[in-house]
Amino acid sequence: MNAIHSTLFTDAILARGLTKSFGGTRVLTGVDLTAPTGSLLALLGPNGSGKTTTVRILTTLLAPDGGSATVGGHDVTREGVAVRRAIGLTAQQATVDDLLTGRENLELFAGLYHLGRRQARRRAAELLERFDLATAANRRVGTYSGGMRRRLDLAASMVSAPRILFLDEPTTGLDPRSRADLWSMIRELLASGTTILLTTQYLDEADQLADRIVVIDGGRVVADDSPAALKRQVGAERLALRLSRAEDVPRAGAVLADAHLDAGPREITLAVQGPDHLRRTLDQLHRAGIGIERVELRAPTLDDVFFEFTAVAA
Predict the structure, then answer these.
(1) Beta strands 292-298; 237-243: pairing state
(2) What is the pTM (predicted TM-score) of this model?
(3) What 3 state SS string does 148-163 have?
(4) pLDDT band (50, 70, 90) for residue 258
(5) Do the beta carbons of residue 260 and residue 271 sit within 8 Å?
(6) What whole-number distance in Å separates Cα of residue 95 and Cα of residue 154?
(7) Which of 25, 31, 276, 312 has most Cβ atoms within 10 angstroms of its Cβ?
(8) CA dihedral sign of residues 183, 186, 191, 197
């Protein structure tokens, strides 16, 4: 953690009771969240849960109807200019220009931050090297791969050396290697003292990177803790069964009516509370004539946390 930043304020991002409506639809209903300086907070939730609205409020792109929030110690409604000076934002859609080279894109962003020409060239060169784009610096971005474009987009958000970075689904659409490369860069930013708020559809990403996870559903926070603590809250081990026939999945749901099932084409997963419950579950399915090809018992994952808390909220 950057010692200078940590002495200025403990929480880089702090929101209390955020509310927002569009027309007659309430999108946020009192969102609270905190990101200590130098940490990564992952914001998870189903589509339409309020994640993007929360990020837009915290980055001053949208005014809340109620509640309060500070970013970098500055109020997002009264000190918008100061907030924008303190943050970087990588949105879901890339903001770089396909017709310009990687170097030209970064120098353009540097100019928007009022850096002089010499300083802009130096900063662009530093970032191209840091994000492993130096060899492609003079190529048009339209020739870049998806992973390269995403790295350039992240580099552009770092032109002003922000203390706080908002990453809105930064790895969506990337192949596994490109995702892993971006994860490494995010870890490097954290190690340098940058505070990061990450929204993602990939639960393994949040599990790997986050110090804390906030799950939003229906415009409110339904879970807030470290990944390990959230998995402990879910508690029970998971029994994953692959059935012999896809048509038996609805029958299994009827037989195990008291259990919350996550079902796939031929798979069902449910929480089991100890050996007796496991034995009873398998006996019930056997008596119903439901064939089982594979049985797996595993510890809870972040996927289980997500389904558990969003199912409760629903």
Answers:
(1) antiparallel
(2) 0.78
(3) HHHHHHHHHHCCCCCC
(4) low
(5) yes
(6) 10
(7) 31
(8) negative
Q: Are 33 and 15 in contact (CB under 8 A)?
A: yes
Amino acid letter, 83: V
Range picked from 1-15, 69-83, 167-181, 191-205 for highest mean pLDDT: 69-83
Residue 233 near residue 299, CB atoms below 8 Å: no
Tokens describing residue 299? 């510890």
DSSP string, the chain: --HHHHHH-SEEEEEEEEEEEETTEEEEEEEEEEEETT-EEEEE--TTSSHHHHHHHHTTSS--SEEEEEETTEETTT-HHHHHHHEEEE-SS--S-TTSBHHHHHHHHHHHTT--HHHHHHHHHHHHHHTT-GGGTTSBGGGS-HHHHHHHHHHHHTTT--SEEEEESTTTT--HHHHHHHHHHHHHHHHTT-EEEEE-S-HHHHHHH-SEEEEEETTEEEEEE-HHHHHHHH-SEEEEEEES-TTHHHHHHHHTTTS--EE-SSEEEEEE-HHHHHHHHHHHHHHTT--EEEEEEE---HHHHHHHHHHHH-
Nearest to 67 by CA among 10, 115, 29: 29
Read off the tokens for 157. Answer: 């958000």
Burial bucket for residue 305 (CB in 10 Å: 0-12, 13-18, 19+): buried
The per-residue pLDDT for range 144-153, each reduced to its tens digit, is 998 899 899 9
